[in-house]
Amino acid sequence: xxxxxxxxxxxxxxxxxxxxxxxxxxxxxxxxxxxxxxxxxxxxxxxxxxxxxxxxxxxxxxxxxxxxxxxxxxxxxxxxxxxxxxxxxxxxxxxxxxxxxxxxxxxxxxxxxxxxxxxxxxxxxxxxxxxxxxxxxxxxxxxxxxxxxxxxxxxxxxxxxxxxxxxxxxxxxxxxxxxxxxxxxxxxxxxxxxxxxxxxxxxxxxxxxxxxxxxxxxxxxxxxxxxxxxxxxxxxxxxxxxxxxxxxxxxxxxxxxxxxxxxxxxxxxxxxxxxxxxxxxxxxxxxxxxxxxxxxxxxxxxxxxxxxxx
Length: 310
Hints:
Layout: E1 21-27, E2 30-35, E3 41-44, E4 47-50, E5 61-64, E6 70-74, H1 78-84, H2 94-103, E7 111-115, H3 121-130, E8 135-140, H4 143-156, E9 162-166, H5 169-172, E10 182-187, H6 196-202, E11 203-213, H7 216-226, E12 230-237, E13 243-252, E14 259-262, E15 269-271, E16 278-280, E17 285-291, E18 301-307
Parallel strand pairs: 7-8, 7-10, 8-9, 10-11
Antiparallel strand pairs: 1-2, 1-6, 3-4, 5-6, 11-18, 12-18, 13-14, 13-17, 15-16
């Protein structure tokens, strides 16, 4: 979400208004996008939440239901939007997105071309990176997907920074009116080597191209085409490993080394001989970090190349 205040500066500090999109946060693995409509309600396991109670509150506010359950109302930032958007196609996630935005050297004011749009996960992050003066031109050959993407960009407030076009970039290339206008080009296509010659024409001198491909065979063929007019060709695979942080109890005298760790049980109360006094049973605890049992594996290969300066 990239709303602008009257002075033209970007701000996420304004208060929630009717018609805004908010991310309702129940827990880290359960969120949903909700459009605020006066008179509507949200029902979940924590109770009934009236939208009218949300209007006028700041993003990040904690709101309560009639049952005293609560949720948080978060701004639909690109990171959160990526987690809750409708998957019309396979999407890029934060690890790949953050890497390619930096490696493409995208800064405010840049012009970026993208094909294809898909579910719009990356497009939203690109829009924030180029805001407030830049622009993203994104293309998808599927007309219905493009229409759905336009609706999503309106919801998240990036529609003024994004132009969605319906075009077969592999077969037709990018529009001629964009020749020499792009600071960066991103391709997410089954046959990216077909679009690389056109992408080269769109880039400014020293511009950068990135192609996302799930298969190494696609990377090999793309690199063969890139070598004709590009230099500094590099391919990366981004693997994200997350850790679980938990408190455990350290007990001396157990185990082979005389030291063991276990998750602390629920605290029990020990009553002393004095009436009304109680002492919590406690032991030494420490914080442990271990890799999560489920780790996201291969998503795709990111191939970068810089246009040769003649």
